[in-house]
# Entry
Amino acid sequence: MDHANSITPQSGDLLLIVGTVKGVFIFRSDRDRRRFQIAGPYFKGQAVFSTAYLPDNRAPRILVGNMSMHWGALVSWSDDFGASWHEPDDGNVKFPAGSGLALNAVWALEPAPLIGPEVVFAGADPAALYRSDDRGETFRPVESLLNHPERPYWMPGAGGLCLHTILPDPRDPKRIMVGISSAGMYRSDDGGESWTRRNKGVKMEGGPPHAPHFGPQCAHKMRYDAKNPARIYLQNHPGVYRSDDGGDSWIDIHRGLPSEFGFPLVAHPTRGDTAYLIPLESDIFRVPLEGAVKVWRTRDAGASWEPLSNGLPRRDCYFSVLRDAFTSDSLDPAGLYFGTRGGQLFASRDEGESWNSIADWLPAVLCVKAAEVA
# Structure
């Protein structure tokens, strides 16, 4: 693997944007994905919790949610694949004056092209949703969620009270869903004017056996099915679920998995009924079961699961994979990529059938995003 100060990708190249506890790295490969060039780290010494890629034939933009040495949590951007970066002078993600809230981190960055070509949403800790209409340069809070009447009852998870998942509906520009730890799932059907919780069927840890609609719900990750937009997969703190009605209700699909605990979840980019998980042993011991790394795949929407481990460590492995550190590209066959808290970056060029390591000694990985250069 070649290391460079910056990269100059060609049309059709694949980028992996990897946020770590000590900066962000950009990996580049051609469509064959056999050899990667690495550039960075950028924002040296800063934690990068989130990244996004905004395609544009004139100037594709990379966004990062970094921790500025001067301004704290904010969103910075590059329009030249990392050769230069723009960092706002005094922060561009802020709580309103008088709110009594202080920004801890930008946990999620999500473009919403169906709403508008320059629209980007950001998720924050403490839980809040922000909207940008200028490709991530400035943000304003979505007041309806910030001032939600149930907010006083939201409880922070171990990592804080974070809004970590943002799902703009692929069909309806007025519908958007968010995941909050630990409040669960909320959905707006009117473009963000109002929000209702969507936790029906999801059990609460330490709660009654039949899931409450409200309580300390700890969603870990959600993804849409590639072919059925009404279908959503959920890795929860306790349990793995599927919704077939856009989040109105959820059913348990963890049977066949070695554990119901884990953080990341990826849906196949083009194949319906197909999703991937990386289960961990338990909430108490957040490592691969028996020290053997396995990615688990369903090809029937959770009716059954199969382990994929060819090329992955098979013994004495005790890292974990965080909620945004697992992603896919949209090539054919689809590539899968995950980073670990031990600093390894693994890749599969064949939809999980085989794996190889493309980096071994990175700082702890917080997020991984794949993008194809237009």
DSSP finds one helix and 28 strands in the chain. The mean pLDDT is 93. The chain has one domain: 39-317.
